[in-house]
Amino acid sequence: MKKEKRKLSFKDIEVRAETKEDGKKTITGVIPYNSRSLPIFGVTEIIAPTAFNKTLTDKANVRALFNHDDSKVLGSTKSGTLRLENSDEGLICSVDLPNTSFGRDAFEIVSRGDVNTLSFGFIPQKWEDSNKEKTRTLKEVQLLETSFCVPFPAYPETTSIAYFRGLEKVNINIEALNDVLEKENFQDEDLLIIKNTVDKLNNLLPKGTAVEEKQEPEETTSVNDTVEKENIEALQLQIEAEIAA
Q: What does the H/E/C string look like for the chain?
């Protein structure tokens, strides 16, 4: 397994919001130890109690984000607005929320109980696999960020690009592709990434292989909409071909 950046979530995590005596609004959650993560492709991951030791010892700068959005920073360990603390149950993550629109949104969403998930982004460093139990125990990770207000805490198995490790052999930037596919609207540079991915995957197919095109009712669309739709469908077909190979 390559040391790739990816995200991991657990279900039924207790996340709470509260207003401190000094008026600060905070959100607190725990990344649990020795618990199974939500599965992806039939494999679950377990966080060992040693997983975050190096991150804490090195006093690395970790950020708290709103739903894994790098542009919506809720706090950081560097500024002291994000605090990480080891406990027997797991890593306690507590963030003092900023007085911003998304900071206020985060407090409201958690206070109402709409979302009670906690997710985090990391790079695996040391791990142990159990093929029999279909688990991977993460012994040490480089913690990059913790995320609150994640409405869908696990990527569906059919769209988790972070786990298509076989794509690395054709020099596909999995992280960039994953970021593109998470967007609702594509820009020109996003379409270029998708097109380059499709071209590289096309090279994996035997020569002369033809993919039957699905007939769609005629409708008026812009050029960008047509390119976007065709590239997404082609990408899905080529990923299936990569997995089958």
A: CCCCCEEEEECCCCCEEEECCCCCEEEEEEEECCCECCCECCEEEEECCCCCHHHHHCCCCCEEEECCEEEEEEEECCCCCEEEEECCCEEEEEEECCCCHHHHHHHHHHHCCCCCCEEEEEEEEEEEEECCCCEEEEEEEEEEEEEECCCCCCCCCCCCHHHCHHHHHHCCCHHHHHHHHCCCCCCHHHHHHHHHHHHHHHCCCCCCCCCCCCCCCCCCCCHHHHHHHHHHHHHHHHHHHHHHC
Burial of 73 (0-12, 13-18, 19+ CB in 10 A): buried
- Give the pLDDT confidence of 157-193 residue by residue, as tens digits: 333 333 344 555 567 776 677 667 667 688 888 888 8
- Helices 188-202 and 223-244: crossing angle in degrees, nearest 10, is 30
CA 117/CA 115 separation, integer angstroms: 6
Domain boundaries, the chain: 6-153, 167-244
Q: pLDDT at residue 102 above 50? A: yes
Angstrom distance (rounded) from CA 58 to CA 20? 29
Strands 69-76 and 82-86: unpaired
